[in-house]
Amino acid sequence: MRKKKREIVMDFQAILEEIHKEIQDVLLDGKVADYIPKLAAVPLDKFGMAVQTLDGDLFTIGDAAENFSIQSISKAYTLILALQFIGEDRLWKRVGREPSGNPFNSLVQLEYEHGIPRNPFINAGALVIVDIILSNSKNPGQTLLDFVRQRSDNPGIGFDNEVAASEKKTGFRNSALANFLKSYGNLENDVDSVLEAYFLQCSLSMNCIDLAKSLMMLTNHGLSPWSGEQILTKSQAKRINSLMLTCGTYDAVGDFAYRVGLPGKSGIGGGIAAFIPGKLSVCVWSPGLNSNGNSLAGTLALELFTTKTGMSIF
Ligand code: GLN
């Protein structure tokens, strides 16, 4: 006997509304990133979430349309660009693909592993990745901007130069990491240009909707559902999702995988972008962070999302 296929229609909007209510208790428990002075001024009570499905539906709640500093989520874009520029073989000679088990801006590991960063999502790895882009593009900032604007279909996306300048003033650790990398011969360009490009990428100002749309190729096996372009091969999309699952939320990656069950990339602006390949992208923003630098209410919201919908990669 043939079983009749049963369509389950998920009421994502109702689920987002429930989540919005349920995260209120912890909304003020996180701490904004204050080592970048401009980010310290963002109000703690912000919360937004956007779900973009492969079927083309968009669901939003709260401050989903408000721009914030995406910070380390930009490392997903730069990894894609670097892969497009030099391919996997060359890229993985300069950066590893193992979880670091250390804070994202840690220096020690880089020294005992001789200047090869553990993965492209910690700061040291992202500095190598942006160095690759610098070596292959005349204007790396514009290359990144073009990519993000096109992928999210929002020509209004830009950098927040004040945030970039603010981070530059206090970016002593990143400066130390870049100098270390240079001393090990793992930067082709000069340290100042690499740092400049890195601070600029981190200052990208976007909202949850832009983010969910722009990374849909990770949900759609490398293919842009908007333009039909193959941005990544199917295998590359799988690999980037795998890297996010194992390295995307730093030294809290085990806890994040346990609670949320999705590949995701976080940033200290309080954003997290997560993916259910074949189905949807879900992005959340709430600036209060936990001690690992991931959004506290954002992580809870994603945990509630996968629990309530019963959808995860497992
Ligand atoms: N710009 C930040 C830094 O380098 C990015 C870190 C993050 O978002 N985790 O410290």
Q: How many domains?
A: 1
Q: Order of strands across the biggest sheet? A: 2-1-8-7-6
Bound molecules: glutamine
> How many strands appear in the DSSP assignment?
8
In round numbers, the mean pLDDT is: 96
Spatial separation of the terminal alpha carbons: 29 Å
> What are the secondary-structure elements, in order, as H or E?
HHEEEHHHHEHHHEHHHHEEEH
Kindly state the percentage of residues in helix.
Answer: 40-55%
Largest sheet: 5 strands, antiparallel
Task: Report low-confidence residues grouped into runs of 5 or more.
Answer: none
According to CATH, the homologous superfamily is: DD-peptidase/beta-lactamase superfamily
Rg result: 19 Å
Percentage of β-strand residues: 5-15%
Core attributes:
alpha+beta, Beta-lactamase, 8 strands, 47% helix, binds glutamine, 14 helices
Q: Can you walk me through this structure?
A:
This protein has 314 residues and is an alpha+beta fold. It has a single domain, classed as DD-peptidase/beta-lactamase superfamily (Beta-lactamase, 3-Layer(aba) Sandwich), CATH 3.40.710.10. The protein has helices at residues 12-22, 37-40, 74-94, 108-112, 123-136, 140-152, 161-170, 172-183, 191-202, 208-214, 216-219, 234-247, 253-260, 296-309; strands at residues 48-53, 58-62, 68-69, 158-159, 204-206, 264-266, 271-276, 280-285. Strands 2-1-8-7-6 form a 5-stranded antiparallel beta sheet, sandwiched between helices. A 3-stranded antiparallel beta sheet has the order 3-5-4. Helix 5 crosses helix 9 (191-202), helix 7 crosses helix 9 and helix 8 (172-183) crosses helix 9 (191-202). It starts with 11 loop residues before the first helix and ends in a 5-residue tail after the last helix. The relative contact order is 0.19. Bound molecules: glutamine. Glutamine is lined by residues 71-72, 104-105, 123, 167, 174, 202, 267-268, 293.
